[in-house]
Amino acid sequence: MNDTLGSAPHQAAWPGAPAGPAEVPRRHASLATLRSMIATWRERIRVRKALARMSKANPYLIDDIGLTRRQAEAEIAKPFWQD
Fold this sequence. Notes:
By secondary structure, the chain is mainly alpha-helical. It contains 3 helices and no strands.
């Protein structure tokens, strides 16, 4: 199958525009990586806060999700950048 968008004549009208993923400037890839990393960190913060609330409000639910009390406490204590 031909890539009709990749061979479109309008792409030549934009000088300096990247023609494909290999030509995307490095700073854009770094920015995407940084955004992904921040999203991962925010998700870890959210999950660990929810786990902390659950362990205080309904400690029996910790068993229901398959963790011991010690495992839950260890997960809650981790810094956001640690997996």
